[in-house]
Design goal:
147 residues; 7% strand; mainly alpha; 48% helix
Length: 147
């Protein structure tokens, strides 16, 4: 699941590894924790960003069945490097010149194409899809031995 709304989300700014505090609305996002009571989940793992750790702890406090275990650097969001904090509109305009379909549903289901397009066209190098995948898999492999 995703962290609650942050200040940068609200300002329509690119946010990957850059940290931004949760908004009041973002802190209320933990109502999702109630829905998780019906699942067999027991543990919460998150990235080490303040917004995800705070969301995880809010969920743990709301749903006593879930226990916050630890945070992992490997679970950080996509690293946009120097694009972090930039206006999303600038990125959208770039994508419109490079991709045929820039609808949310298309981009969300073609993250590999999206990540590599941005990495290739950016004046600064962002994480490629391969780098993102390798990092996340390393984190998941770490968890495999803890469960």
């Amino acid at each position: 699941m995703r962290h609650g709304e942050t200040v940068l989300n609200k300002l329509n700014r690119i946010q990957g590894v850059i940290d931004s505090p949760l908004t009041k609305y973002g802190e209320k996002y933990v109502v999702v924790a109630k829905a998780l009571e019906e699942t067999s989940m027991q543990n919460i793992y998150s990235s080490d960003s303040l917004r995800t750790v705070k969301t995880a702890k809010l969920i743990e406090n709301t749903n006593k069945k879930l226990h916050y275990i630890s945070d992992y650097e490997q679970f950080r969001e996509w690293n946009f490097r120097d694009l972090e904090g930039s206006k999303i509109n600038a990125l959208t305009k770039l994508l419109e010149t490079k991709m045929q379909d820039t609808s949310f549903s298309y981009l969300n289901s073609h993250l590999d194409v999206l990540a590599d397009t941005i990495a290739q066209e950016s004046t600064v190098k962002t994480e490629t899809y391969r780098e993102i995948s390798d990092r996340l898999l390393k984190g998941l492999n770490t968890l495999k031995y803890l469960i």
